[in-house]
Amino acid sequence: MKFVKIYSQRSGQPGINSKEYGQFSLSIPVVRKEQYKISSILSYADNLIVANEKKGQQLKGLKKLLMEKIFSQAWRFKGFSDPWEQRKLNEIAVINPSESLPSRFNYIDLDAVNHGKITKRKELSLAEAPSRAQRVAHLKDVFFQNVRPYQKNNVIYSNDSIPTVFSSGYTQIRTKIDSEFMISALEDDLFVHSVLLHSTGTSYPAISSKQLGDLELSIPEKEEAERIGGLFNMVDSLIVANEKKLDQLKQLKKYLMQNMFV
């Protein structure tokens, strides 16, 4: 790959031709048995990677199917039959609760959340904080990304050991119902479609916190909401665990490649 990169840095159209490929020297084990063993190990690693990629797609497909069935109420937990109630978001949650910023905190900007997880944190003092650092997080608060909501880069704040402040690019939702149910309801395709209808902008559609709070959700009784939230939490945990395993397998293959072809 280093060889390809060097040859591809020419002016004009970058690339490498067949003749140049043919001039590259490969290190080949003399004994065919060693060649076979190396290829077998790497092929086995590739098969594990493909299998886990397939499992990941199946888990995501399962979650999508569950979302469709549960939020259309086509499928209910046994013992629950009462109709769901239509409620505005601002009736079942406190939107953007006001609170003074701590002297130091972890700052979460719009690019810091990915697939329901906080992946980046920036420690700041109050003096260093940008003006958009406004949402002081509490345990179980839901943060909804106002910009490009179809990305579903939303998160439940689950670690209150260090003071954390989110950007005003998120709507902070201090829910009165189960947080896991709430974030699942906010990411239901029908609700996201409603959000987009009330958003402004084409390339970067965005909704204000006030408009979001005025939108309606279908809400079941407390116990059913908790059961639904627990189900989606379990599926999400399986998805995250599979993605972690997939990353480990890719790192394993990279390590094998680096050490076998030295």
TrEMBL record:
Keywords: DNA-binding, Endonuclease, Hydrolase, Nuclease, Restriction system. InterPro entries: Restrct_endonuc_typeI_TRD_sf, Type-I_RS_S_subunit. One of its GO terms (molecular function) is endonuclease activity. This is Restriction endonuclease subunit S. It comes from Levilactobacillus fuyuanensis.
